[in-house]
């Protein structure tokens, strides 16, 4: 039989279409689009490329990984890098951080510009000092604070451009629950903000602070239904002498000692030059005034 007799004829299908003829192995198909690469193999290859670039031979030698702008949606478990301290994962497409489980030495973590909507698992990173989470999709401020509360070394935190920032008292709320943070959203936390957050979120502590006087607590409570309490007039002891700084009088009531001490305040003196006695440039030129010494004005307050 000739070559024409050996040629296979296409088989008719039930739908009327022809089954494509099987291509020989010597002529593989070309021009077909490649299927999208799975997320985990993509991250694994990115990590292997970084290890090759920096020449790491052992996992114990890896202390930093730069995996930003890799279009990553997932990352393989990084627990094998026990001494990892710096991790860059910004400008990817991550939605979670479940890949960080046993990286206890991690101190700086850059996760900004992703699609992260929850940070469950961050509480396992006690050594974290810098955490950037801006430009993500975090919506729950309570869940976020819960994950970050145990990080005693956290000093720098960024959460701006997240949906949770729409909370009215967002900044003061974060400062109150994370008192160790010193730089929040690229702005340093001020003492005024710390006092404000205590007044708003901890009324009991604010009341105690306001009741401190001369190193001891006083009764600062107030009830509108009770009559106004008037303190009795303070009287000096008979052996008290004014302006006697070596007075060794012993008082039975400490409040009497406080009252006496208020009368022994030091003298404050302010001295300023009397500019009316200082000749101007024109007066010096015309010699209308003499060269008398300028006068000094002294004000004394007790």
TrEMBL record:
It comes from Octodon degus. This is Leucine-rich repeat-containing protein 72. Signal peptide: none annotated. Pfam families: LRR_9. InterPro entries: Leu-rich_rpt, LRC72, LRR_dom_sf. SUPFAM superfamilies: L domain-like. Residues 1-41 are annotated as: Disordered. It comes from the Eukaryota. Residues 1-11 have a biased composition (Basic residues).
């Amino acid at each position: 039989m000739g070559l024409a007799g050996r040629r296979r004829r296409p088989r008719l299908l039930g739908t009327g279409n022809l089954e494509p003829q099987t291509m020989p192995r010597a002529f593989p198909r070309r021009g077909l689009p490649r299927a999208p690469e799975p997320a985990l193999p993509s991250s694994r290859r990115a990590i292997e490329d970084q290890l090759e670039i920096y020449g790491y031979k052992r996992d114990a030698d890896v202390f930093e990984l730069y995996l930003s702008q890799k279009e990553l949606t997932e990352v393989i478990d990084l627990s094998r890098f026990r001494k990892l301290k710096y991790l860059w994962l910004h400008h990817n497409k991550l939605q979670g951080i479940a890949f960080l489980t046993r990286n206890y030495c991690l101190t700086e973590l850059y996760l900004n510009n992703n699609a992260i909507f929850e940070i469950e698992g961050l509480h396992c990173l006690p050594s974290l000092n810098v955490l950037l989470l801006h430009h993500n999709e975090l919506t729950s401020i309570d869940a976020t604070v819960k994950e970050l509360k145990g990080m005693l070394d956290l000093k720098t935190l960024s959460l701006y451009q997240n949906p949770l920032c729409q909370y009215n008292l967002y900044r003061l709320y974060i400062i109150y629950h994370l008192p160790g943070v010193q730089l929040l959203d690229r702005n340093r936390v001020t003492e005024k903000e710390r006092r404000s957050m205590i007044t708003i979120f901890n009324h009991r502590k604010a009341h105690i602070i306001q009741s401190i006087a001369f190193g001891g607590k006083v009764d600062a409570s107030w009830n509108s239904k009770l009559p106004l309490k008037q303190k009795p007039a303070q009287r000096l002891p008979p052996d008290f002498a004014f302006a006697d700084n070596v007075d060794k009088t012993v008082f039975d009531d400490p409040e009497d000692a406080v009252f006496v001490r208020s009368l022994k305040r030091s003298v404050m003196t302010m001295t300023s030059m009397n500019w009316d006695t200082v000749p101007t440039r024109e007066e010096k030129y015309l010699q209308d005034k003499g060269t008398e010494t300028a006068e000094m004005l002294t004000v004394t307050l007790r």
